[in-house]
C-alpha cells in the first residue's frame, strides 16, 4: 500500500483548520458557519446530532457541493464556513479537506460527535425514517 489512512489523516490535518467542542458550541447559531454531519443516517437516528446542523452523507458530499451536479444542494453555495463532523473526527477531517479542495471554507470538529456528546453539549434527536 502506497498511502494509508494515517498518512491521509496527517495530510488533511496539515491542510484543514480544526475547532474543539467549546469553539463549535460558541459558533452554534452563527450566520457565518454551518455545521455539517456526514455520518450515515442510521448513526443520526441512533445517536442524534448537533442542533441546527445539516446532514450530508459522506458518499454524496462531492455531488452535493458541486453546482454543476444534478444533486447540488444550494446551501453549500452559501458564503459560510462549513464545519464538518462525524463520530470521532476522522471521516469529517477527510471530508473537510475534500470540500476545501472544491473551494469551500472549511473546518473539522476535533473529536467529532462523540466529543460533543461527552462534553454535555445539546443533542437533537431525529426520528427513524
Automatic annotation (TrEMBL):
Species classification: Bacteria, Pseudomonadati, Pseudomonadota, Alphaproteobacteria, Rhodobacterales
Domain of life: Bacteria
Span of domain Rhodanese: 29-125
Organism expressing this protein natively: Thalassococcus profundi
Gene3D superfamilies: Rhodanese-like domain
Cited SMART domains: RHOD
Pfam families: Rhodanese (PF00581)
Gene Ontology molecular function: any one: thiosulfate-cyanide sulfurtransferase activity
Protein name stated in the entry: Rhodanese-like domain-containing protein
Amino acid at each position: 500500500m502506497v498511502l494509508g489512512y494515517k498518512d491521509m489523516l496527517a495530510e488533511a490535518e496539515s491542510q484543514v483548520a480544526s475547532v474543539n467542542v467549546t469553539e463549535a458550541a460558541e459558533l452554534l447559531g452563527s450566520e457565518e458557519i454551518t455545521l455539517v454531519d456526514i455520518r450515515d443516517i442510521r448513526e443520526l437516528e441512533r445517536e442524534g446530532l448537533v442542533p441546527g446542523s445539516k446532514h450530508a452523507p459522506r458518499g454524496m458530499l462531492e455531488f452535493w457541493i458541486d453546482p454543476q451536479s444534478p444533486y447540488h444542494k444550494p446551501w453549500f453555495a452559501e458564503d459560510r464556513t462549513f464545519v464538518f463532523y462525524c463520530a470521532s473526527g476522522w471521516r469529517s477531517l477527510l471530508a473537510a479537506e475534500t470540500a476545501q479542495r472544491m473551494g469551500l471554507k472549511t473546518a473539522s470538529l476535533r473529536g467529532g460527535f462523540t466529543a460533543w456528546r461527552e462534553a454535555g453539549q445539546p443533542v437533537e434527536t431525529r426520528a427513524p425514517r
